[in-house]
Amino acid sequence: MKLFGKEGRKRPKHLKFRPYIDSMGTRPSKPPDRGYYYKLYKNSIPLIRFTLEDNGFREAVNANQEWSMMWSVSNMKSQVYQSMGKYQKVNHFPRSAEITRKDCLCKNVSKMQALYGHRHFDFVPKTFVLPQEMPLLLEEEEREPRQYWIVKPAASCQGRGIFVTNNILDIPEKAQMIASKYICDPLLINGLKFDIRIYVVLTSIDPLRLYVYDEGLARFATCKYSAPMVSNKKNKFIHLTNYAINKHNSNFVSNKNPFVEDFGSKWSLTALKEHLRAHTVDTDALWDKIDEILVKTILAIEPLIKSSCDMYVPFKDNCFELLGFDILLDSDLTPWLLEVNLSPSLNCDAPIDQKIKGGLIADLFTLIGIVPMSEREQANGKGGPFGVEAKRTRVVKLKDGAKDAMSRDERTAIRDAEEEYKRRGNFRRIFPTVAYNSYKGFFEAERPLNIALAHHLIKQNSEAVLSKRNAKILVPRKVPSRSKKVMSTAKG
After folding, report:
1. What are residue 362's phi and psi, to 5 degrees?
2. Can you name the residues that pair with 89 across neighbouring β-strands?
3. What is the DSSP code string of 439-478?
4. Closest CA to 400 of 450, 458, 459, 448
5. CB–CB of 157/346 below 8 Å?
6. What is the model's pLDDT at position 1?
7. Using CA atoms, how far apart are residues 364 and 353, in angstroms rounded to an integer?
8. Among 168, 124, 161, which residue's Cα sits nearest to residue 146?
9. Is the Cβ–Cβ distance between 187 and 329 less than 8 Å?
10. 20 to 30 A from 56, CA-CA: which of 195, 345, 476, 492?
11. Whole-angstrom Cα distance, residue 468 to residue 474?
12. Which secondary structure element, helix H or strand E, spans residue 164, and what is its range?
């Protein structure tokens, strides 16, 4: 564990984490007690535990040991948020389950379609929430009797309870489920269906700051794909890509070498992109589409999280969220959002898992900015709680003589975003960017901090572009020196 920031700087230092690279069967030795504690809430994930302990944290076992980090795999009660101190962090925002429950994701995306037009939020297959929308599903079946549906429990994971059917009567009558149109023409690699696990991190809700990790996983089905029909619709190894299901198939191929990333039933995201590029796919354009899906999905629940944070969360830096987005590509290279996972699996069953997820967690803990104990002791303890906006502004004279009035909250938001960006490691910020104007119309309400941060980034980008142009203009053309001409003539 190292410190971000240099001595003598006014900006706060933050802890920098290294990934855990030793065997997952070996727990790190107990570090000396420096006052850094963590708490696992209803879970015991080795990768989280080992990464924290390898970086100098101890598990909090007594009430007087104030934890800096709490990791939970489920939603938490409001009392947990309300009791948090300024320097404590927890890995969930209140109401983030509004996109991780499959029925809620459907409802919230449908709401955005109704508000802003279907074409802006057309990245989710047509879905019905059951049993409430069973009459609508039956009408749809009458119109398209040959349509196959993939049916999932509203609140489950790892492929439990999922099945494919073309007979609505197969669906339990009163079960809380969703039925989505089955995408019958998925993109195939080596004849196999696959999906992509993308790791997304929300570090702030106001202003909204969103990152995507540069690495991820492609998970493959383990039987050659054929379109669903009566004879194969029950074969989960054809139609489902969940690792938890396919690892039980005799066809499953485990990758034992972390340096060979395009082998077996699980590839790295880097290997997948290289494969696609080798087959003339413009991966930059494709990932622009995927980034848009990620941002718009978060925008669908931005007001819900914001209002809950205003109500329950004492300090603006208390929460962060790691989400697992599952994306399917069809044969036309259209990306489809299948689901969002509240607590994506951090199991390390193969070396490639530890390589990718170990780096992910270390970069995540660095990104969120845990303040070292020495800085906490010096701080006066005054925080920036949600729902409180500074009324005072500070007027700054610009070089051209104009005046720029900005609130203290706006200046703090810009400073925090810049410092966080320097800690991003292998994360890539997808909001805010200079493309802010493409998304501003999808916010339920304008947020002054979003606007201030976006304007700052756009201004920075404009200045950088202008500086590059000026640099090109000012570069002198190379002219042969006079002495060389003279020597040349003399030799002639």
Report:
1. -65, -45
2. 69
3. TGGG-SS--HHHHHHHHHHHHHHHHHHHHHHHHHHHSPPP
4. 459
5. no
6. 65
7. 16
8. 168
9. yes
10. 345
11. 10
12. strand 163-165
Strand-pairing partners, residue 329, are 335
* Three-class SS state of 227: coil
Question: Residues 232, 224: contact at Cβ < 8 Å?
Answer: no
Q: In angstroms, rounded to a whole number, what is the distance separating the alpha carbons of residues 44 and 351? A: 20
CA-based nearest residue to 221, from 187, 197, 245, 254: 245
Over the stretch 325-372, which tens digit does the pLDDT of each residue have? Answer: 999 999 999 999 999 999 999 999 999 999 999 999 999 999 999 999
Answer yes or no: are the C-beta atoms of 285 and 232 closer than 8 Å: no
Alpha carbons 203 and 205: distance in angstroms, whole number? 7
- Is residue 481 scored above 70 in pLDDT? no
- Average pLDDT over the chain reads 89
Distance from C-alpha of 175 to C-alpha of 156, rounded to nearest angstrom = 12
Task: Note the pLDDT tens digit of each residue in 378-399.
Answer: 544 444 445 443 334 444 444 4
Chain-centroid distance, C-alpha 400: 40
Residue 4: helix, strand or coil by DSSP? strand
The neighbour count for residue 446, using CB atoms within 10 Å, is 8
Show the tokens assigned to 416: 């925090």
DSSP annotation of 434: T
Tokens at residue 428, please? 């890539």
CB 108 within 8 Å of CB 300: yes
Q: Is the dihedral of CA 65, 15, 41, 318 positive or negative?
A: positive
DSSP string, 317-328: TSB-EEEEEEEE
> How far, in Å, are 95, 97, 139 from residue 342 at the CA level?
11, 7, 32
Amino acid, single-letter form, for residue 277: R
Confidence check: pLDDT of 229 > 50:
yes
Mean pLDDT across 44-64:
95
Any idea which residue has 């690792």 for tokens? Answer: 243
Burial class (CB in 10 A: 0-12, 13-18, 19+), 339: buried
Quote the pLDDT of residue 490.
Answer: 37
- Strand 192-205 relative to strand 188-189: parallel, antiparallel, unpaired? antiparallel
For residues 199 and 403, give the distance between their C-alpha atoms in angstroms, rounded to a whole number. Answer: 41
Token output for 287: 């990932």
Checking if the pLDDT of 240 tops 80, the result is yes
pLDDT bracket for residue 400 (50, 70, 90):
very low
Tokens of 273: 């992109």
How many percent of the chain have pLDDT more than 90? 81
Complete edge-to-edge strand list for the sheet that includes strand 37-41: 58-59, 37-41, 69-72, 89-90
Over residues 144-161, mean pLDDT: 89
